[in-house]
Amino acid sequence: MKKQLTFIVAILFTIASSTLFAQNNSDAIKKLAQSLRNHKSMEVTFTYQTISDAAKTEEPKQGKAYFQDNAYKLIMEDQQAISNGKTTWHYIVEDKEVMVGDAADDDTPYKILDNLERDSSGLNPVIDKKGNLKSLEVEIDEGVKMVLNIIEMKFDQDYQKDFFTFDEKAYPEVDVIDMR
Fold this sequence. Notes:
Layout: H1 2-15, H2 25-36, E1 41-52, E2 61-68, E3 71-75, E4 79-83, E5 87-92, E6 97-102, H3 109-118, E7 123-127, E8 133-141, E9 144-155, E10 175-178
Parallel strand pairs: 6-10
Antiparallel strand pairs: 1-2, 1-9, 2-3, 3-4, 4-5, 5-6, 7-8, 8-9
């Protein structure tokens, strides 16, 4: 699950570029990283779809991601991942469980982006004739890839401090497992 989350966060940062020219992925990601660091926050609405050689391809689903400094909130149909930079919450909807842990220093959006700047293998952008990013394919495992399409982006939004925490009171039926 953490590997998938890491890829999703990394992908969303990559997708946030309104233009990704058909050039070396590493160069494009470096330019994107610099651009993103100039914004105080980012909100991305996207669709995602997992495609597997072995299993039936799933229907596209919609998700939303928010990033601000070392904090993030990723909302997808089957899970949520939230971090305020110190604590992380991974909510698995079907299991009605939230796993709480310490945020790892290398699990912040900008650290993940730094890692992508060093190694962008596994990222396959789909670019139109004008050089705009249409979608992005990411190899998760052998024979499995995730395809993301951006719907909308907003930058420099203001979020309340508690926005990047899991509100246990809003989910009274959820079992909270503190793994710290």
